[in-house]
Amino acid sequence: MAAVLVWKVSDRRVGRAIAGEAGERLVASRLGWRTAAVFGWRSPGARFDVDVVVFEPCVAAIEVKRGQGRLRVLGDGAVSAGGRPIPGRAVRQATRGAAALRSAAGLDQHVTAILCITHMVGRPRVVVDGENPVVVCSAKWVRRVLRRLEPSTPATRRLLRELVS
User: What is the pLDDT of residues 124-150, one digit of tens each?
Assistant: First the structure.
């Protein structure tokens, strides 16, 4: 019985990993060729990764979650899309990724936290997690959101390239 239970847990994790990878591929296809990005960056010593780090044309940490439908903010870093909760505290994960990136790179420039819910319906929204704003958008909107953010400086791009290489 215990072996069956372990199998189901690991089977669920594999399913989530496959769904997460598909979401990240969708976001990658929407970024466009003028966007410099790294996928699956992990801060030294961290137990989590940042799904997408964008460092040109702006600096952003993107947390990608699979979901579809209208966004609803549930509080405490949780959101739902189409009435289904998005796993984990997705808004909080996005702010944590942006903070980790800024800290690891020693950046003075602001790092924008973005939560991309792949098939969210509606325009992008800003959700506040404590004092930290997070832009929530669909994969369809992610490139337009990035174009409207503060441009990264050459020094910032150089630091980030060194950090992620």
Answer: 999 988 888 999 999 999 999 988 888
pTM recorded for the entire structure:
0.83
Q: What percent of the chain has pLDDT over 90?
A: 33
Task: Return the pLDDT at 9.
Answer: 42
Q: Is the peptide bond before 85 cis (omega within 30 degrees of 0)?
A: no
**CA nearest 39: which of 29, 55, 50, 47?**
50
DSSP 8-state code for residue 55: E
- β-bridge partners, 116: 64, 137
Sequence spans of domains, the chain: 2-164
With both helix axes pointing from N to C terminus, report the angle between 90-105 and 154-164 in degrees, rounded to the nearest 10.
100
Return the bridge partners of 36, or none. 56
- The number of residues making up the chain comes to 165
φ/ψ of residue 160, rounded to 5:
-70, -40
* Alpha-carbon span 81 to 114, nearest angstrom: 16
Instruction: Work out the number of other CB atoms within 10 angstroms of the CB of residue 149.
Output: 17
